[in-house]
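Quick illustration, no need to memorize.
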Amino acid sequence: MSNGFLDKAYTKQDARQLYDRWADSYDAEVGDNGYATPGRCAAALRAHMSDLAQPVLDFGCGTGLSGLALRLAGFSAIDGIDLSADMLKQAAEKDLYRSLTIIEEDGALGHAPGDYHAICAIGVIGAGAAPISVFDTLMDGLATGGRLVFSFNDHALEVAENTDKLQQYVDQGLAHILFQEYGDHLPGINLKSNVYVIEKT
């Protein structure tokens, strides 16, 4: 049964503590609320990659719902990283990932640019989760031509710093937007999100 963590998820707090406590009931709670962003992101990335066998990094993979969406979309080489050990235990049980690694908040990704043709940050950036500074880390982890698929939910879209960061990359010629679509995130609580696919230039 859900412990009702959604009402706590979009406030500033210790993200690792929140997600460790939420791990056992996360899938049920977000599932009950129609969590749509993983499937939307996976479909958008698939439409902008020619080889689905190329390795993909699922940053902030949580319990593996994003990995499941990627696998259902046809991706076969998926590695996951997250800061919550308890979330990673849930992800491991789904048997979707080649590897699962715990990371420190604000830590380096631990791979060379180009090791992954795409990085996913699905439902990751925003209040109660990762700060927008993570965007720079993710882009640093891609080689030229690499794809980043990510989402900003309504709460993240209300913070100008988030969308400004994306616009800075575009304006400086460091990335261009391949796909942008506003749609369902958690329809059960009437929350929507923008899904983006960008290419590093």
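DSSP finds seven helices and seven strands in the chain.
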